[in-house]
Hints:
Blueprint: E1 13-15, H1 19-37, H2 44-66, H3 73-76, H4 80-91, H5 103-125, H6 135-165, H7 170-176, E2 178-180
Antiparallel strand pairs: 1-2
Amino acid sequence: MSLAREGVAAPRTLMVWDPLVRLFHWTVVAGCVVNSFVFEDGKTVHRYVGYVVAGALAIRILWGFVGTAHARFTDFVPGPARLIAYLRAMLAGREPRHVGHNPAASVMILTLMALLAAVSVTGWMLTLDAYFGEEWLEDLHELIANAILGLAVIHVLAAIYESMRHRENLILAMITGRKRL
């Protein structure tokens, strides 16, 4: 028997994250995990995974200008005043729920995207004869990769916190693309 027949209204949901955004998200997650913990640095498969992530990033950046409403940067990139207001409300325990990304999550996403671009460029540079064996570049590449992993942990913890705070499973939403209205 359906919930509506029992007198309980079914929760209304909205498609927030389109398939391309979700594919990008999970491609980056998988790529970062396997390149950090499975495939050896500098090996062919490590490079190809890096190229896939770099390609996904390039497509996602383009999609940020021409994609669906919640995928566009104009929808979620906050100005400083909006970010500060949100952070103050969050510290006071009064942050509003957002259908798309909240301002703090938006800054995290932009930071991770910038770091993904940097790790992609440094990884590519390591394949060039001009930089082959350059220890400073290898160290920089590894530092950026570790920063991505550290911020990803914070990102996941923040998603869990916000899921509990607003009583909504954000990780499931990133799989299905749907959030409650």
